[in-house]
Amino acid sequence: MMTLNKEAKKLTSPTRKLNKSYLGINELMAQATEKKETVIEEEDTGKRPKDPFTIDELRMSWRKYAFKAKEDELGTLYTAMIGRDPEIGENFSIKHTVDNDVQLGFIKTHETNLVGYLRKELNNYSIQLTVKEETAADGKLFSSKDKFEDMAERNPHLKTLRQRFKLDIDF
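The chain above was modelled as a monomer; its predicted structure follows.
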């Protein structure tokens, strides 16, 4: 018979020093937040026009492109663009906020065409697009009670009608 002569490993007390070769949850969350905001790099516009534009002109051109996307059967892009209105920032930067990663991805995919369209429509080749994701904390109402309370808050006569006609909302 053969005997094994292995020594047991000695255990030492913990040193409380962590190996930082991994990423923690906070670092991963910070990286994800950084990735959710994209900016098209500034191009050299040279002698191209930089006509100023109003928010109404921007909204009109924005919606035209959105409806064009809908006609081209790009419903998600249409939804991402129509969900919220764009805003004008400094130096002709356009800021747009979307609700989720899918919408952000669709706008990222089509941002070159979108920015080109806006530059041509608004006759301003200094336009830059910034898209960020922002989830609405209280934006969605899921239960029928929440929906009714929201509508009743905007129109108090709904509660009166509900009581007068003895209507029962499925709570």
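The helical segments are 25-35, 55-71, 75-82, 101-122, 144-154, 157-164.
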